[in-house]
Every structure is written in structure tokens, then in C-alpha cells.
Amino acid sequence: MGRRVGSRAGGGRDGPRRRRTQGGAAEGEMKLSSQGLPGTCSSETVLQTISGSLSDSELNRQQGAERGNYSHSALFARAEELLAKRIIDGDPLAYFLQGQLYFEEGWYEEALTQFEKIKETDFQAMYQLGVIYYDGLGTKDDPEKGVEYMKKIINSNSPKARHLKYAAAYNLGRAYFEGCGVNHSDKEAERLWIIAADHGNPKASVKAQSTLGMFYSTSNPKDLKKAFFWHSEACGNGSLESQGILGVMYLYGQGICQNTKAALECLKEAAERGNVYAQGHLVEYYYKRKCYTKAAAFARRIAENDNIDMLAKITDCLPVYIAKGVAMATFYFARCLQLGLGIQQDQAAAKNYYSRACLLDPDVASDLELAANHGRI
Q1: Burial level of 226, CB count in 10 A (0-12/13-18/19+)?
Q2: Of the candidates 31, 32, 10, 5, the residue with the CA atom closest to the CA atom of residue 281
Q3: Are 124 and 164 in contact (CB under 8 A)?
Q4: How many Cα atoms are found within 13 Å in the side-chain-facing hemisphere of 248?
């Protein structure tokens, strides 16, 4: 998909599962994460779910916590207490809610224990166990068992499993793509992601739609028209990741006719929503149009990002693309400092920022250095 959109830099799952192509490049570098349980809820919303058990005065007290009157730990303890009571009373939903409460808090061992108790009767618990075992959350990773649970959900005829099938198909596609828990097969991964994407259905897996866009942009051979189609579907369904990539595709005419107006609309909105990849490309756009003051100020803010994983969690974007966005902004900020463009010249600071750009993404930094050496930027 071009110089940056199609690059597959970054890490996949660590360890011996990572495959290598004949050319020696690591496969699986489109670093994917499991799709969470559809409609997942935080510990606070679990409390809201069980609020029917509270009297009006108790409910008012719990809602007061949102205004800072009660700590998160106090809310958690109260939710745990109420769920334990409902379990004693024989409420079947309470078992899952307690497991989900632990899962959202990152108490994966406790969540696993709770979900194991009800996995034969609760498909949501089965789904969460699949994620826990595949990713090794709170237990030794067991991708084969994770795959087994996802297959059970996909193959079930129960109405209670229906809403989980798109997400399960996405996760199973990820397993085939990574060759983890099953033999590697891009073809099977593609088939499952297409099932999960369901022709762009907004109720299907939007994550699968976005992943298909990246898959077709990095496959051999690439199919940029398909990549554009799936990123468009995902963007229309709210994917921040795809919105940024779509902007770049419009900007460089990849898979679609070049359209600078549409590109800037996508990039600016994605940037405002926190897409760092889009932010990096906007810096480049401003710099190339000699809006140096604007480029330098924007680049400085982006270059201050130092926790890629946290940004990935907040924005639900792949760390590899976040690193690319920060690397681009950091390089252009260094260039502004070196030449005194839109900011006071500072050679020492420029050198430090150039070094940081190289550490963030060597490929992006190398491409931009080559462009600078040839006078293209």
C-alpha cells in the first residue's frame, strides 16, 4: 500500500510461533489482538447491571461515587458483595457477572476460575475462556484450547451463541494468521475474517473489517481496491484505525483515485479522535506545504508520546501504526529544529529527535532520511 501504509514493521506474538517468509521477514507483524467480548462491561457497569438489587438509598450512594464520594475499590467491593449474594440465591447470570468483574479488573486467575464453573452452560464464559487461554491471561497460554472454545461457539446452533459468532470468527482468523494453536493459513484467516466482517454489517466484527483492509494491503500480491473497500466499511462503522489509513489512501491515491479533500477530512477527524498515525501524516502534509510553524508545533506535541502500548489500548489502534505516526512526527520535528523552520534552530535537539525517530521505526526514519538527502523534503 505504498511507503508506509503497506509496511509490516513491528512485532507479532513473541516466541517460536512467529513464522518467517522465504525472504526472511517475520510474518505476523500485523500485530493483532484478540477481540473482546461483544458488549463487554467495566466493573462500574457491572455494578449498574446489578443495581436492581439495591434499594433507592443504596443506589444513590453508589451513583455518588461517580462524583468522587466513593473510590473505585469501594464500588468494586460492593459489586463483589452483591454478586456473591446473588450466586447464593441461585442467579445464573451472577456467575458470569462476577467473572466479568474480575476480568475487567485484570484479575485473570479469579476470572478463569469463575468462568470455568459455568463454561458448559454460558457461551459468554466460554468465549472469555478462549481469550484467556489463547493470550495466556492469568494462566499459561494454551492457544489450542483457546481455538477449541472459539470453534465451539462458531459451530453451535444455540441462539445464545449467535451474537458471539462474528467476534469468535475474528479471533479464530487471527489464530490461523499467526499459526498459533492451528497450522498457519492466510487463506483460512481470510475466509474467517470475511465471515466475521459480514459484508460490512455494523453489527458484525468491525475489527475484522479493519483487519481485512490491512491484510489486503500487505498480502502478496496486494489488492489495494479490496483494502480500500474494507477500510471504508470499517471507517463507516466507527473504526478509528481504518479512518486514519483511509485518509492516507486518499492522500496518495492507493486503491482509489487521489482525493486531497477527502484525505484531509479523514486525517483531521481521525487525528482529533486520537489516531496518531493520522497525526503523523498531517505533520508531513503541513511540512511539505511549507506550513512550518504549524508542522513544528503539531510535531512537537506528537513527539512527546512515549507510551505506545498505552496509546494502543486507549485508541484500540495497532501499536505498529502508532509507532509509525510518532516516528514521522519526531523526524519532521527534528528536521524543523535542524533547519530552523517554524521554530528556533537547535542542532543538538535535532540530533536527539532524529535518534528517537530511528528507534521508534527504523523503516520510516530511513525512508524520510533518504527523501531528505534527495531534496524531496
Answers
A1: middle
A2: 5
A3: yes
A4: 30
Instruction: Give the pLDDT confidence of 73-132 residue by residue, as tens digits.
Output: 877 888 888 888 988 988 888 999 999 999 988 999 999 999 999 999 999 999 999 999
Angle between helices 123-135 and 165-178 (to 10 degrees): 20
pLDDT in tens, 293-337: 999 999 999 999 989 999 999 999 999 999 999 999 999 999 999
Query: Which residues neighbour 267 within 8 Å (Cβ) at sequence distance 6 or greater?
Result: 244, 247, 248, 251, 278, 281, 282, 285
Closest CA to 287 of 355, 232, 325, 342: 342
Q: Alpha-carbon distance 218 to 1, whole Å?
A: 7
0.90 exceeded by the pTM?
no
Cell 473497500: give the residue. Answer: 229
Distance CA 56, CA 305 (A): 44
Q: Is the peptide bond before 221 cis (omega within 30 degrees of 0)?
A: yes
Q: From CA 169, how far away is CA 153, in angstroms rounded?
A: 9
Query: Among candidates 338, 336, 334, which has minimal Cα distance to 290?
Result: 336
Q: What is the pLDDT of residues 1-52, one digit of tens each?
A: 333 343 323 333 333 333 322 222 223 367 899 998 887 655 556 666 655 4
Distance between CA atoms of 341 and 344, rounded to whole angstroms? Answer: 7
The DSSP 8-state label assigned to residue 274 in this structure reads T
Closest CA to 230 of 253, 205, 252: 205
Q: Grid coordinates standing for 303?
A: 513527539
pLDDT for 150 beyond 60: yes
